[in-house]
Structures are given as C-alpha cells and as structure tokens.
Structure to design on (232 residues):
C-alpha cells in the first residue's frame, strides 16, 4: 500500500511512503522519532545511520533535511522498500544489508537513529515474518541492549544517538545501559497511546509478567531517548 505521511520538516508537503506486506508501516513511534530528528540540525555535512530502517521513512526524512544517509536492515525486502521510498521522494541514500552496526564496520556517524523491535513476546523462539519488526524477546530488549552497547563505537565524538521504544521494555534500563557504555542519555520526547492489536492480544501475559505500569494496563508510553558521549 502507499500512504502519505505528513512532513515534519520545515519544507511544505508530505512524504510519500510505499509499504508492502512484510515491512513495518510508519506509526506513532516513527512520528516521534521524526520530530526528534528535525531538532538535530542536520546539514549536508551530517552523516546519518538508520539502524533497522524498515520502510525507510526516517532515512528519507534525514536525507530530505540534507544529511548523508546510510540505511541498514537485515531484511532485503525492507531495503528494497527503502530504495523505492527514497526515489518516490526525490532523495538519495545508501542502503546496507546486515545485522545492525555490523553492516557498516569501522564507520562512525554524526547521528544514529533507530526504531528497533521492542515489544515483549511470550514465545521464546525467534520471531518470523513481520513479527520480526516488533517482537524482541520476553523483556523486549533483545536488540535494544545490543544497540546501547555498540552505540559508542559508531558515534563520532560529538555524535548523537536517537532511539525510540515503549516503557514496557524499561526506560530506566536503557538510560542506565547507555550511561554504562559511556554515553550521557536523557528522554527528549514522550507520547501515550492505547495498546495496539499486538499488545491487546498479549494483555493477560503482560499482566502476569508485571510489565504493565498503568492502573488498567491498556496504554503504553513511547519515549525517544537521546544519547551522546559523556565528555569530561
């Protein structure tokens, strides 16, 4: 399907985004991260890395703001979608196939953006199909912890990481993990919304795991965390 997504850039108009079956479609977490990207002051000299690019919308947004963008995903279908969405919006960017930062060995960036899978999942087996875009182990941190640990190796000294995820997988845990890795981290944006289809289907299990933090356990808070090197 093709959707038009309201642009958060200074320029008027909308971003066009084609999303085939099997690729994560832009949602509230995408919009939150796009808003944070705009605040970063991207220029033609900004090297941007989008980890787990999915539809490529965030990569296209960063390119539209002027950045030199590299988009990474482990899904070939997602990379093909990213290429097409860049063309649909008149932007150019690089795509790399691989597992997170291993796809860009030895490279460092001014800005790393990521909307990783973060939904806690009861099934211990690796997710299949589209579920790979959201399922992230029993605590939802299967990829988040890896990103936190490797972020310092892909950030330039004055670079920044922007990561979005749900409160269900632990905001404080992410802040602590990033700080342990040598980064100064803070929450820069929040949004609360009702559970979507996937979380509603797991409500009983989430309550059993004491992962819901609300009185009724039917709304989640999404956060954008920004991290940078803790200079002394």
């Amino acid at each position: 399907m093709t959707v038009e997504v309201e642009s958060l850039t200074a320029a008027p108009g909308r971003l066009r985004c084609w999303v085939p079956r099997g690729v994560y479609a832009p949602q509230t977490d995408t919009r939150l991260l796009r808003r944070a990207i705009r605040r970063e002051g991207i220029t033609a000299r900004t090297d941007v890395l989008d980890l787990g690019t999915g539809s490529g919308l965030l990569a296209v947004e960063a390119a539209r703001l002027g950045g030199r963008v590299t988009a990474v995903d482990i899904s070939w279908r997602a990379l093909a979608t990213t290429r097409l969405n860049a063309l649909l919006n008149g932007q150019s960017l690089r795509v790399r196939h691989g597992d997170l930062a291993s796809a860009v060995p030895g490279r460092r960036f001014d800005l790393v953006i990521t909307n990783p899978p973060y939904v806690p999942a009861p099934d211990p087996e690796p997710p299949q199909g589209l579920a790979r875009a959201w399922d992230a182990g029993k605590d939802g941190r299967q990829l988040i912890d890896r990103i936190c640990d490797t972020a310092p190796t892909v950030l330039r000294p004055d670079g920044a990481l922007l990561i979005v995820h749900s409160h269900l997988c632990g905001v404080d845990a992410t802040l602590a993990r990033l700080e342990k890795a040598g980064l100064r981290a803070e929450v820069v944006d929040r949004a609360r919304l009702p559970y979507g289809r996937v979380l509603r289907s797991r409500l009983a299990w989430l309550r059993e795991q004491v992962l819901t933090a609300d009185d009724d356990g039917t709304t989640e808070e999404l956060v954008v965390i920004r991290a940078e090197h803790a200079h002394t």
Observations:
- Residues 22 and 130 are 5 Å apart (CA to CA).
